[in-house]
Amino acid sequence: MKDLFGNALLDYQNGKYTEDIITSTNISDEDDLPLPYLFRGFKDMPKLEQKALKLAKGTVLDVGCGAGSHSLYLQKKGFHVDAIDISKGAIEVAKQRGVLNAEVKNILEETNSFDTILLLMNGTGIFQELAQVSKYLTHLKSLLKPNGQILIDSSDIQYMYEDEDGGVWMDMNASYYGELDYFLSYKGEKEDPMKWLYLDFNTLQTACETVGLKCELVLEGDHFDYLARLIAV
Ligand SMILES: C[S@@+](CC[C@H](N)C(=O)[O-])C[C@H]1O[C@@H](n2cnc3c(N)ncnc32)[C@H](O)[C@@H]1O
User: Fold this and answer.
1) Prediction pTM value
2) Which positions fall inside the Methyltransferase domain (predicted)?
């Protein structure tokens, strides 16, 4: 990983903002990911994220914290927050912004336990592909304190396969439709391709059942997106 995402966050943090990240996927064209969005305050967060922050309790783990926007909000409210990300640049920025416990760490290497685990901005993306969902969910479950909760958002992206007449062109023999190849570039450089997973609510719920998690729908967003709360059963 070249960490272009982290480089972009560092540029923005250090007043060197000249252009946005460009993303695309195997099923969609190029799109800008505006850097200021990654530094959003509570007011500019989608309502699903605001709801997740309102539901936070106890000690919190912010998984894939990016620039640390959610961690900062909760820390200011008095929560103990650990923020982790595999991007060195992101963690450097989160620290510069004041996140006290920010560490470069893959979620699969986390061993502490928490009352609330946050995975926000398509939190299921980190699972990469359907075949890995049980592994990640089992690990996340193992990090929960008694009565702990996992708050995670995602989208049902079936709409991305619809043409203008409402017809769906999905290949039913292909793998799960939410598994995407994700491409990112910044300042003319290309990041190594990544896998990024969008999970519809029913598929997430079924996966949760298989690992002993109860999955509740907390809130639906405006565009096929939702926030789920997972608790151990
Ligand atoms: C879409 S960004 C979201 C950033 C932040 N949560 C936000 O809402 O602004 C996803 C983040 O997850 C991080 N990430 C990806 N896989 C990870 C893993 N296995 N463990 C920890 N972080 C991961 C990426 O480096 C990236 O910063």
Assistant:
1) 0.97
2) 57-157
* Cα 7 to averaged position of ligand 1 atoms, centre (Å): 14
pLDDT at 163 over 90: no
Structure confidence at residue 168 (pLDDT) = 74
Q: Which of 23, 25, 85 to mutate to test the pocket of ligand 1 (most atoms within 8 A of CB)?
A: 85
Three state DSSP letters for the chain: CCCHHHHHHHHHHCCCCCCCEEEEECCEEEEEECHHHHHCCHHHCCHHHHHHHHHCCCCEEEECCCCCHHHHHHHHCCCCEEEEECCHHHHHHHHHCCCCCEEECCHHHCCCCEEEEEECCCHHHHHCCHHHHHHHHHHHHHCEEEEEEEEEEEECHHHHHECCCCCECCCCCCCCCCEEEEEEEECCEECCCEEEECCCHHHHHHHHHHCCEEEEEEEECCCCEEEEEEEEC
Query: What does the pLDDT read at residue 166?
Result: 76
